[in-house]
Amino acid sequence: MELKSHDLIKLSSLTNGFLTEEYELPQWAQNSLQVSPYVVVRRAPFKGGYIPVGVRGKKRSERFGFYISKSKISEVISPIQLQESFPSKERRHLKAFQALKRVREILQTEERWGLGGSVGFELATGVETVKETSDVDVILYKEDAIDTKKARKLLADLGDLQSRVDISVETKFGSFSLMEYCSKESFLLKTIEGPKLIQKPFSP
175 and 43 in contact (C-beta within 8 Å)? Predict the structure, then answer.
């Protein structure tokens, strides 16, 4: 099983099999895992049989990175699997979910894409994480070079929606913001070794 950044992991248990850099999980993180035992794979080097993951709390400031043993994996949900997932009827009125139908229509020509962030988390887990101000986080998976003209049209089409759509492009070299790629001569590439400032066109 090849785990990638943005993949969600359901934990089989909340005891043992955890590694932290400096200290134990904060109380808010422990509470969050009790409610929903899901973590997201982080962009960081693996440590033997341990996977870099993060847990989210109720607040934007509540994010914590640590490692879990591969033995703790109960289920893996990739962003691509969430393409056709839908929220509960009681939650469909939220702007981010209202925008999803149009997002799916616009991205029909893209071979591989998925949903991350709070939208992806709620669709995968059922836990209410999306707010009225939430963005729709889209991940595009690309093997080849990005066509800038096509990318700018995609951004323009998605820019008319009532909820902001934030697109990250995942490549074998790392991840970058499509908006930044289209608007700047240099852009930030997120890699497992850390962020790098890259010039266009770019190579590893």
Answer: yes
Q: 174-189: per-residue pLDDT in tens?
A: 999 999 999 988 999 9
Q: What is the pTM of this model?
A: 0.90
| Residue range 106-160, pLDDT digits in tens | 998 887 999 999 999 999 999 999 999 999 999 999 987 788 898 999 999 998 8
- End-to-end CA separation in angstroms for the chain: 25
Helix axes 95-106, 117-125, angle to 10 degrees: 100
Query: What residues are annotated to the active site?
Result: 135, 137
